[in-house]
Amino acid sequence: MSSSISQSEQKILWGRSGNVCAIPGCNSQLTRQGINEDSNSVIGEMAHIFGENSGAARYDAEFPIKKLNKYENLILLCPTCHTTIDKNTSEFTIEKLKETPELKFSNSSDLVRKAVLLKVAELDVSIYALIIKKEYTKKDLKENIRILYNYLIKILLESVIKEVNQKEELFIFLDKCMPYSKIENFGDYIKTEFYSLYSSLPKLEINHDNSLQNGGLQVTDFICGAFGYKYNKKKLSDGCDEYTRIIQKRIVSERSDFFKKN
Question: Is residue 109 part of a domain?
Fold first, then answer.
């Protein structure tokens, strides 16, 4: 199977896997270190989401042949999960498998989480975090998540825009989770809000990307996951900040008292 998949597609697949089986909850390592270099082993297996050949699991004759061996149609698995998904196609549907190749904090092992965050700590990035607690949030906002979402992004961007040279370009990348009409409304809202606050603005471009194809959004998911772990585990564990500590030097702002009444 691997001979029909180009080296570049294989590198993308392995690079984004984090060395972990893509099936949520499995977390099996896809390479194993032996006693010496000669005994190291690779156990990961590349599988197709849409089957490659007639008779293969999830084969669809209408799926474009040129897309069969592209990253978007591939998934990296341990041998056990590879066998399982091919024998249980009613459970592991195409829709379900399409969601799994993406590297996420929630479906990654502790080792992968820390490895990704250590790389983030080496980057020239500034992290601004708003942590919203349900007990501080008004009922009408809880029931209008889109309004809350827009407002919080505006608050975060206010801090960023102050640091941006007005002659520079500002690119905003958001996970594509809105219908097209809402995307258009969001862009108008952000631009209107900022033009009312500032006399001049950098060139502003808002992009709504699929996080599966945007590594930056996947990294952001790990950063958000680190904060989520900290605040969800705060009452349960003394080590709740084990992930945020890794990126501490990159955190410019961390607000957890938003909407809290004095």
Answer: no
